[in-house]
Amino acid sequence: MSLSLESSIKLASGHSIPQLGYGVYQARSKECEDGVKEAIKAGYRHVDSAQAYHNEDIVGRAVLQTDIPRTSIFLTTKYMPSHNVHPSSSVYEIIKNSLKKIDRTGSDQPYIDLMLIHAPFGGEEGRKNNWEALVKAQKEGWIRDIGVSNFGVPHLKALPSPKPSINQIELHPFCQQREIVKYCEENGIAVQAYSPLIRADKNRYENPVLVGLAKKYEKEVAQILIRWSLQKGYIPLPKSVTPSRIRSNADVYDFELSSEDMNALDGLDEGAKGACTWNPVDQA
């Protein structure tokens, strides 16, 4: 399997997304700004933010401070829906706020590469309205791709057309969400993996399979986890604000996990109980 830091995934829209992303969950102020700049310096060309992270403007400002043009950096953000039902017109105005924050280039035609609905809140009617707002923005051209996050199979099946380009879910060897992944793969929906490093859970990092593979390949456990995700065809979003970790998380292209070792990692799946974070894929 030939993978590199320049590897990308072709979305159903025809656009491409860099396969390795940089996550900024809970990153604030200067550490977020410095982290984004360090990631871009290390070769990342994909940054994942969200309205709920309160750092869209910081990400936009950091991108401006690099030598890489905005057009070469894929920026994702997410609309955080309410548990209540809101008309699509109201949702549209809320998502428009993200455009002003994350694309700070001053261009006459600012854009967001990818906007996701952060969670399946609001019931079927609310999800429909939220989706209609994103579809409108995509038709107008200031959001290039639209998708969802934390959506289970019933949520995906009930969405109006078009199909989402991406479903971003918690995904790592201990929480593989296989039914959702299978549905996405069968329906041309790319799968993004958040929390691919299991939030550096100490107990899980001491798992004998992970420890053994890290020793075998002379890599860190985090690098094994990221490589597993990449070889699965997912789009992992590792997060760190430590420069050395940001760089090492991208240093995963000089080795390949064997099929036997991939199977060993697949065998760690604990189903739903393996989730280490908020995982509302069964939300009504």
UniProtKB/TrEMBL annotation:
GO terms for molecular function: oxidoreductase activity. It comes from the Eukaryota. Substrate binds at H118. SUPFAM superfamilies: NAD(P)-linked oxidoreductase. Keywords: Oxidoreductase. Gene3D superfamilies: NADP-dependent oxidoreductase domain. Residues 31-269 form the NADP-dependent oxidoreductase domain. It holds the Pfam family Aldo_ket_red. The record marks K78 as: Lowers pKa of active site Tyr. The active site is at Y53. Belongs to the aldo/keto reductase family. PANTHER family: 2,5-DIKETO-D-GLUCONIC ACID REDUCTASE, ALDO_KETO REDUCTASE FAMILY PROTEIN. This is Aldo-keto reductase. It comes from Kwoniella bestiolae CBS 10118.
